[in-house]
Amino acid sequence: MTPGKTYLSSEEIRPLAERSDLMGLWLIVHCWGVIALSVALFAVWPNPLTFLVAIVLIGSRQLGLAILMHEAAHNALFRTRRINEFIGEWLCGRPILAELASYRHYHLTHHRHTQSDKDPDLPLSAKFPTSHASLRRKFIRDLTGQTGVKQLLAQIAMSVRLAGDDDAIEAATQDAAQAFKARDLWKSFPVFIGVMAVMGLTGQWWYGLAFWLLPYLTWFQLVLRIRNIAEHGATEQSDNPLQNVRTTLAGPLARALVAPYYVNYHLEHHLVMHIPCWQLPKMHALLCRKGLDAKMRISAGYRSALGEAGW
Q1: Average pLDDT in the 239-262 region?
Q2: CA–CA distance from 34 to each of 6, 60, 174 (Å)?
Q3: Domain residues for 170?
Q4: Is the pTM of this model over 0.90?
């Protein structure tokens, strides 16, 4: 049974679960629009500040693409299944070297076994809380590109080593560190490089390196880690759906930089996973009106969530 039906009736869930092709299109246009405008910002006013702003905004929208692929994995991005699959794969997953089908398989296993020994994401959350020094080292590795380069090289090596071996690929992508990554990298690299090429052709030759590869290797890795920590880090390892996952309240700045497309409402998502992301604030408000907020694991912000994890 859907965990949310313990707290919400079918009549309450049904309107929240309505999907929309128009809203899905808006989310895609918004995400890629922010990326384009970030590059344009630097092109019009080229200086170190606008360069840094572009890197941060684009890295956050690369996380946004991952989140929208996640929506597609739950068949919640578009109402029309064919559009959901195509856009989720080629405009969300492949541009960030991810793959919809393998991610869906892995991620639905996470939902079935959240914070249990069978949860494939447990290695990501079980290490928290940790020390402030450990988190600082992780964040430095992310921002300096060490994490991104290491994972990219590992992904390339995995793709070459396992080429054509479907059983080995399946086993490899059950690893939490690789589940987000494309199995058939040869399909994703042309899309990734294609984005870089478009940036270079519409601006300076080096724009693709600066405004797609660099954010991917740095800010994207940081916010991806922050997302993972906030969602399940330092939560209960139990079957209590109100305590084994966290919702983190986010203001406009946090939504722009680290929590795009309502990803912060993760507890609500786990209660009813097929509700579209843009409906999650309504679901949160409904649960609070029922007085459940006192029982839910809710952090006042990302600083608070990271504090619980050891920051």
Answers
A1: 97
A2: 38, 10, 32
A3: 3-309
A4: yes
